[in-house]
Design a protein that fits this description.
CATH superfamily: NAD(P)-binding Rossmann-like Domain
Number of strands: 11
Shape: globular
Strand order of the largest sheet: 3-4-5-8-11
Distance between the termini: 13 Å
Order of helices and strands: HEEHEHEHEHEEHEEHEHEH
Structural class: alpha/beta
Strand content: 15-25%
Radius of gyration: 19 Å
Amino acid sequence: MVGSEVVGKLAGGEHEIRVLSRRPPADARAGVTHRRIDLVSREGIDDALAGVDTVIDAGNERRAARKVLVDGTADLLERCREAGVRHYVGISIVGCERLGLDYYVAKTAQEKVIESSPIGWSLLRATQFHELIDFIFATTAKFRFSPVASIPVQPVAAAAVAAELARLATGDPTRDAQIVAGPQVETLRRLSKTWRAARGKRAQPLPVGLPGRTGRELRAGALTDPAAAKAGPTFQEWLAHGG
């Protein structure tokens, strides 16, 4: 989701762009090459890193999160060191350290791996993507319902996050975590109403409750950072402009 946006931000400029993924990009861009790699089997990584100065790691995995995001990142960073890569740029999630769900626990562990990197590094923590919120509502609408909850979220466009990743990648390693967030804190309930109006969908609002510590942290705004740098359009603006 964000990787293709980063390529779009950097392609056609002064940098040589090499996409590393299991499958080639659907749209070929001038000056962009592709190398096949696999972060689980480790296939192709060493050859793909040859001659590379900066790596932007936009890889993601939910079902095997620890294997890819933690073990895979540690392995990738060591291979970057061996290949002479100067700068590693990673992406994480605002508030991941506050949530006990497996995926967020893995993202927190990945941050610690990056922070102990053997090479220069930069880290960008982002709030939830507009695209993710849109996907959730579109998927549940197929079953005639829309999840609603009093959970504060601060969604941001993937393109805005990609612009920040591109900015970090073209600079020196910060050895610090920076934050980018959407311009508005809203509840999932309000976003559901906005989405249904923009998409012209009729769906029954379905209250969703999360018990325990994770639920308390979410209701307390774990996924938001009102003090963070604001970027991109609001969710409503993003929908109105074809999001």
